[in-house]
Amino acid sequence: MKRIGEGVANIPLLFFTPRLATALLVLSLVGCSSHEEIPRFTASGYVADQGINRLWRIDNAQHQPQTIINVYSPYYGGDTVIDRYEYQQGQLHLLRQTHAEKTDLGVMLRFDNEGNVSFMQRQLPERREKLSSDDIELYKYQASKVLNLSSTLRAGNVELVQGQWKQGVITSCAGQPVTLSLSVRSQVWLAKRASRSNDRLGLAWLTAPEGDELLLVANEDFCKWEPKESDL
């Protein structure tokens, strides 16, 4: 994937609306749902302290995680970071972190069947170096956090959809026209960005039983790089 997250500067800080927050608070009650009700390939997302996380996940036939891609786009400045997690029999096997713009930066961690590190490397602009034990534990913690959040959001039917806005019409990446039920805050945000755009805007939003929530508005076509099931 190239140039993921380009043009997300000047995005105001967003929080979950009460309707989506309520959905997340009651997710512990839906743990009894059968695995068969959840498709193998899903997409979701959430608001972090300083940016937006978009998650794409595919499970194996035993409903265990197989691959998760987490795309983190900061609100102001900074580079979009892409984390790819690969699993074997539900256990983390490979972690690869890349940057959308700074291609000379990255991290790779590989784990054996016992969960021990079998390969580690941090790529810096002019050299490669090993990771410290604290670095490894931090990356493992982040991987666990992403996996748990992905499972929680899926259980609550919080889904990520991406698409485009053009002349007042919103279309998903699948080519379907969409009518969103947005909060007043999101409507104002989209209207301001649309007033400064002569062509089209890329959109990313969450849908949940409680309503829709806008995540990103950018001068970028998210559909060009959006991960597909075959990519995972």
From TrEMBL:
Pfam families: DUF1481
This protein's name: DUF1481 domain-containing protein
Source taxonomy: Bacteria, Pseudomonadati, Pseudomonadota, Gammaproteobacteria, Enterobacterales
